[in-house]
Design a protein that fits this description.
alpha/beta, Rossmann fold, 8-stranded mixed β-sheet, 6-stranded parallel β-sheet, 16 helices, 19 strands, 17% strand
Length: 472
Amino acid sequence: MKILIFSMGPIFKDYVEGGSQKILSQIAVHLGKKHKVTIVCPSRSDNCAIFSLSDNVVVKPILPFKSYPEPYYIPPFKLATAFEILYQEIKSHDVTYVHDCELNFFMLYNVSKPFVCSLRDYIYPDTLIGAFNFKKDKLIVNSELTKKNVIATIGRYFPLIANLIEVIPNGIDLTFFKKTKPLKIKKYIPPLNTGKVLLYPHRPDYRKGIFDALEVVSRLKHIYGYEDINLLVPLHINLNTSDGKSSYYGDAHYSSLKSKCKELDIEKNVIFHKWLPFNMMPQYYSLGDLTLSVGCFVEAFGSNSSVESICCGTPVIMSRAGSQRNTFPEGFVSQVDWHDIDSIVNFAHNILSKGCDISRAQKYISQKYDYLKMLKKYEFIITKTRPSKNFKLKLLKKINFSKSYFKLAPWCYLTSGEIYNDYEFGYLTIDPRFYELLLAKSVFSFKDSLTFGLNEEYILSEFYKGNLALDI
């Protein structure tokens, strides 16, 4: 079978930009064992030549899109060129797999070939546009939370989507991610201080927790006496291009981070290093004493970095943001509410001074995030899906709120009298009566809310604020 894969994220031969592209590459290599695979992705100055990722897997970085965050913000004649390239590729393959739902030329879906789409996030504009226009054959998500989020939103006007969703958690290759002697990694990072090593294996985005990580290091140094502590922070791969140097993760951004380090008196403790080759990641994780995943980003799967770190023997501290709330059962890893610096520092000090047993988390990973099972399930869905009939959507069907039941939105959770909302990136103060209602009732009607002194108008206001979802 000839399989086409579309990725708006760049695919490199030796590097991966993030967890999403890592999973895509692994799926493609697996498919290439039995099928002919072509990956089309954007061209950039440091990645513009066609190459083989493995046997039977060809990567064509030939599309004229821009780098994130606005890949479609290009001249119309370039959009036309991209459309023509993709049309010819789709016509010449048996099935198309759209990674992260970012193929937003909707006329292309009229080609009478099967399409399988996946959501690697449920927050970026191009992904959301693709998801809300989805009406094809199969939709893969990588967590139950993302499935609930899709049903609670798109399901309001397209209830059939629940039948088209397949949940495939990210699998972890335990033959690769394992405790490894860090013999070669030191060629890629500057000399370290003699103290403990904290890892921040993410892009330097405030939503990924970079400023919280800096604050944690400052407190560990100045309160607990970790004078020679290290925090490793990667320089984003986009700095390899001229456009990238002026982008959000460009030189100006790192200058602001370095200014913050100076303000906190941790200039010598924060070690900026180049984006690492993928094959160095087990050594990188093994080098650390602790990994921080403490941001507020709406992770679709949870943190790939956290799971990989634990596989390599390094404990993690995770925030309860997005699917990180459910990556592990309660108590298996150190978890904190977002921006709870005090708790992060306390956990960090205990782990660094006393160690941490992560054996339960490691066992859970081997059972829950089976790598071969993930690959086989992707292969089955991509190769066995057939074109569906055109769906007749009952768009914007009026909701009869008087007969509806409500529940806390899946992207929210309750904490200390407040609601944490993933998509607001923070905490929302609410009426104490509303908090008591949500504690008492997992699902409720207008009639139930009246017993707590809350009228229909209040409940609908919370629904449209995004704190409630319909019980569909």
